[in-house]
């Protein structure tokens, strides 16, 4: 009986259930997509340490599901409160609370069943889309991925769990609410805000605080990238979050009230009516606006960051590892000696050797150069390291760097930005009976050493020095090869006693004297694939839930609005004027927590581009703006979807013709 009655009620109140249906359907689609990614064959085969990635995504899905359960509990309560007069009448006529709850749960069960089917269908397409993104990040060819039974069962289980939590909240509400509140709850009067002027000061101060935190964070990142130490970045982030909350609370409690004092604003059309409609709803929901704005800001920033990280990855690889393969025979960091002849045979087998460049590092045993740095400590600093100009030019030539000529001069080449901080210009270095003057200090050369800096000198200057490192750089014939397999092969050569089946137990290899750029590319691709897919899922769910709460809050006052617009109709206001007033009321309510997250796309893109340029990644800096624009566009489309649905439902309910 309850099921038939529930189906009839759902058909009769399609408008009330539309937002709920959209939210549940899209949430199920996202859960189905990410669960199929977790159990996909591609994640296990193509992602190195795939089990760790699977565990991380499972934890993320569990945490997001908890948030979804909370929001859908609110949505279910909203549907219950929208019909409180109807349920109050049932109770007055003698119906039991348990019967009402059973009827309501049957209705939501019907909605969830339909939404589950729609969500699984849409989730199938979303899954293929996420897999296409992941395979693109892994630089693999995409083909249609198989769906997983485990992913389907996990999605159904999570959906049922979310539904049970939401039903529990409804049961508690129906058990505690009185009949009087059910029937007369719509007549409650909202309290006016006290001291709106003070809240306006709070709004202005919070806006200034957000700007200050952003500027100081920007400067802190600059200092950090230049090699400095910054300890206050977490406090700046906490301050920014607090300012976001206070800004929205203050704006909701002050802006409308101040506008109501302006004769020019209130004298136009139905502005006074719209502002009075907004005054109560904004002040009551001020804390909610702050939370939603923060949630959407995190979603926008997180999505931007994940794509910016991927855009910077390719250029960072060529900055950190300019050669395809590099061999360092550094006496300070050797944990074993790889037999070079065997290693080169393995390199030739996997990638081919097109060119090989040798270079040497010399030492005098002194710390004359390091002694001029501000971070110098005699017991901790390494000895000064020298490279001949001929070795340096031979090493830089294949990378397209112009040769340097040093006649009685020395050049500081820094692998770290702080190498340029000391004042080297007045230094004269005496060695072997000769004096060498300062030529330049460069930190923009390709990184070929782990040292903070090394000194390039004329060849004759190293005649009496000790050679402490004979390293090699390789240009390979293949641009793409199995870097992880080569890394493991070289790890086997590190020790004659190494297990021939190394890697099967998941243990990390010993540190190698080889740096393989393709290995790092594949490792970074693994991280990027999981980071981007996880960020897309989390951000989509956060935005979806935020929009759902906004839409439900917009519709929650339709009972009161219907009576007020009825009065406007009787006073002679036509359908167009009513629709215009309703649009202004709903649009400004909906846009209140949404404007700041969208506006953050601009400084976020500027910050990302600035960081990329500081790291010498011009191509990635240009891509940052495109990424930010795409993220903002997708977010705006989701916003328009929910706002359009909310406005059309509200218009059909309150506007009189």
Structure description:
The chain has 657 residues and is an alpha+beta fold. 65% of the residues lie in helices and 9% in strands. It contains 22 helices and 9 strands. Strands 5-6-4-7-3-2-8-1-9 form a 9-stranded mixed β-sheet. β5 (428-431) and β6 (434-442) form a beta hairpin. The radius of gyration is 33 Å and the shape is elongated.
Quick overview of this protein structure:
Helices cover 65% and strands 9% of the residues.
Keyword list:
657 residues, nine-stranded mixed β-sheet, 9% strand, alpha+beta
Shape category: elongated
Radius of gyration: 33 Å
Which sheet architecture does the biggest sheet show? 9 strands, mixed
Can you give the mean pLDDT? 78
Structural class: alpha+beta
Q: Which segments are poorly predicted (pLDDT under 50) over 5 or more consecutive residues?
A: 332-336, 496-510
For the termini, the CA-CA separation is 38 Å
Overall helicity: 55-70%
Tell me the number of strands.
9
């Amino acid at each position: 009986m309850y099921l038939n009655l529930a189906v009839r009620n759902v058909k009769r109140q399609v408008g009330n259930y539309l937002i709920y249906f959209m939210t549940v359907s899209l949430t199920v689609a996202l859960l189905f997509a990410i669960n199929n990614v977790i159990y996909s064959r591609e994640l296990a085969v193509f992602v190195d340490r795939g089990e760790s990635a699977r565990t991380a995504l499972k934890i993320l899905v569990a945490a997001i599901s908890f948030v979804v359960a909370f929001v859908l509990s609110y949505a279910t309560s909203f549907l219950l409160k929208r019909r409180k007069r109807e349920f109050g009448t049932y109770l007055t006529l003698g119906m039991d609370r348990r019967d009402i709850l059973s009827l309501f749960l049957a209705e939501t069960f019907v909605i969830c069943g339909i939404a589950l089917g729609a969500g699984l269908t849409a989730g199938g397409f979303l899954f293929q889309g996420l897999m296409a993104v992941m395979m693109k990040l892994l630089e693999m060819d995409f083909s249609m991925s198989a769906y997983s039974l485990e992913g389907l069962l996990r999605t159904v289980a999570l959906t049922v769990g979310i539904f049970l939590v939401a039903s529990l909240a409804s049961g508690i509400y129906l058990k505690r609410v009185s009949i009087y509140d059910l029937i007369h709850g719509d007549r409650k009067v909202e309290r006016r805000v006290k001291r709106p002027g003070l809240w306006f000061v709070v709004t202005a101060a919070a806006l200034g605080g957000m700007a200050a935190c952003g500027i100081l964070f920007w400067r802190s990142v600059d200092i950090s990238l230049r090699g400095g130490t910054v300890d206050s970045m977490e406090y700046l982030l906490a301050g920014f979050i607090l300012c976001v909350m206070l800004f929205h609370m203050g704006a909701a409690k002050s802006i409308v009230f101040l506008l109501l004092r302006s004769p020019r604003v209130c004298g136009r059309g139905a502005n006074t009516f719209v502002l009075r409609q907004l005054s109560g709803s904004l002040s009551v929901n001020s804390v909610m606006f702050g939370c939603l704005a923060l949630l959407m800001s995190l979603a926008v920033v997180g999505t931007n960051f994940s794509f910016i990280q991927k855009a910077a990855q390719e250029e960072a690889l060529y900055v950190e590892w300019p050669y395809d393969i590099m061999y360092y025979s550094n006496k300070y960091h050797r944990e074993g000696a790889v037999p070079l002849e065997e290693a080169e045979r393995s390199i030739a087998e996997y990638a081919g050797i097109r060119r090989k460049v040798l270079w040497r590092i010399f030492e005098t045993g002194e710390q004359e150069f390091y002694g001029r740095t501000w971070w110098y400590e005699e017991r901790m600093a390494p000895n000064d390291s020298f490279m001949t100009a001929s070795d340096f030019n031979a090493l830089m030539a294949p990378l397209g760097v112009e040769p340097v000529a040093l006649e009685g001069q020395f050049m500081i080449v820094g692998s770290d930005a702080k190498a340029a901080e000391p004042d080297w210009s007045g230094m004269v270095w005496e060695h072997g009976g000769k004096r060498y003057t300062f030529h330049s200090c460069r930190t923009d050369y390709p990184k070929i050493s782990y040292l903070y800096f090394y000194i390039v000198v004329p060849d004759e200057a190293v005649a009496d020095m000790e050679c402490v490192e004979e390293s090699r750089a390789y240009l390979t014939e293949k641009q793409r090869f199995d870097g992880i397999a080569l890394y493991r092969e070289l790890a086997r050569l590190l020790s004659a006693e190494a297990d021939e089946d190394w890697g099967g137990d998941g243990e990390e290899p010993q540190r190698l004297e080889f740096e393989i750029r393709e290995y790092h590319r594949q490792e970074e691709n693994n991280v990027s694939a999981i980071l981007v897919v996880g960020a897309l899922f989390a951000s989509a769910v956060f935005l979806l839930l935020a929009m759902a709460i906004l839409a439900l809050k917009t519709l929650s006052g339709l009972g009161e609005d219907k009576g007020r617009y009825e009065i406007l109709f009787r006073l002679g206001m036509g359908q167009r004027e009513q629709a215009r007033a309703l649009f202004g009321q709903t649009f400004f309510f909906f846009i209140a927590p949404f404007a700041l997250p969208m506006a953050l796309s601009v400084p976020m893109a500027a910050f990302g581009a600035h960081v990329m340029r500081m790291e010498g990644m011009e191509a990635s800096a240009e891509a940052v703006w495109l990424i930010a624009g795409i993220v903002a566009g997708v977010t705006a489309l989701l916003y328009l979807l929910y706002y359009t649905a909310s406005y059309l439902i509200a218009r059909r309910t309150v506007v009189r013709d």
